[in-house]
Amino acid sequence: MAAQEHDPATRPVDTREPAEIEQTRPGTTQTPDAEDDRPERTTRETSRPGGADPHDADPDGADPGDAEPDDADPDDQHRGRFGVPGAPLNRRNPFFIGFVGGLGLLLAYGTFLGLRNAASILVLIFVALFLAIGLNPAVNRLRRAHLPRGLAVAVVALVMVGLVAGAVIALIPPLVTQTTELINNVPGFIRSLQRNETVNELVERYDILNKVQSALDAGTVGNALGGVVGGARLIFGTIFNVLTVLVLTIYFMAAFERLKESAYALVPASRRTRVRLLTDEILSKVGGYMVGALAIAVLAGLSTWVFAMIVGLAYPFALAVVVAVCDLIPQIGATLGAVIVSLVGVASSLYTGIACAVFFIVYQQVENYLIYPRVMRRSVQVSDVAAVVAALLGVALFGVVGALVAIPMVAGVQLLIREVVRPSMQRR
């Protein structure tokens, strides 16, 4: 039996593959069972409370368990000694909406108050910019005569200052002289009126004398003194406004090209060329309006000079200059010049004053409805109806400033409609 057990012939045959036999040799430590158990061992190691085995640390001494994983929670990254940041504000919260809306209302109201308080200064800036735009063609014409821009601006500014100074010099002497004569002639006018039976009957019927005496009391005198102070304030305020507009106009003319290029730089590059062409055309309309206004003012002054020579008024040239300068003021300028000339005429004689009033009433109607529309149609290329309607609406909406910009604004709107709106409608 022992011999049979150790007999190689009777030994059982190994049917395994060579690779499996190699793995079971004494020198190998890795078996298929051990390899299958490795993932489970790794899972158990990573799930231990203490993290990885301290013996598995890196050679540099860094603990692998201290390394922050890539998919860590963002709150863990911001967690510090002050705690975890809270959730962001809910923008749909009624309190948040009301608070932000209230801040918006306060900001809008503050902007309104600022614009209202600065309205007078903004009007002066606007008028100065408008005058600079209107005078810029004259500057460009001088530049084409090989003058530097600074020298061209200086020449235009000196001419403008000379016109204003000449108007003031022409206005003050006749105004003072004729006003003094008018005051001295008031008693004679009153005596002549008292000799008129119709006037005496009206005075007795409506008790005019007693009303005049009751009006001349201490309160009336105090109000008159207050009115004198208010009048002085108005005069000095007007002088300040004129000087401010004059200085700002000179500055705007000197920096006109830089301001224009800065404005064009705010337009997208794809549309800059077209915007530049349209804006330059609109600015040329403003220059044409200024030329037309000067032509109308010169015509008014010339007509006044001819009339003053016919009726024999004193200082005919000075009065013509006054009317021409006043006529540059939209709407009220012509009336102001007519009142001044009529007062001078009344100081000379009552019939001369009446003739002056009739002349200016007729002339203003002719100027407003015949001369003004025709000149503006040629210089600004605005129809007669559009010129009259624009002037009336400008005065009704914005006063003197509205009358100043009404015609150029209508010309610009017509240009935009013709070049932008109509082609856009045709493409649709």
UniProtKB/TrEMBL annotation:
Membrane topology designation: Multi-pass membrane protein
Gene Ontology BP term (one): transmembrane transport
Keyword Membrane included in the entry's annotation: yes
One GO CC term, this protein: plasma membrane
Region (Disordered): 1-86
Keywords: Cell membrane, Membrane, Transmembrane, Transmembrane helix, Transport
Cited InterPro entries: AI-2E-like
Localization per record: Cell membrane
TM stretches of this protein: 95-112, 118-139, 151-172, 234-256, 277-299, 305-326, 338-366, 386-417
Biased composition (Acidic residues): 59-74
Biased composition (Basic and acidic residues): 1-23, 38-58
Family according to the record: Belongs to the autoinducer-2 exporter (AI-2E) (TC 2.A.86) family.
Name under which the protein is recorded: AI-2E family transporter
Source organism (scientific name): Mangrovihabitans endophyticus
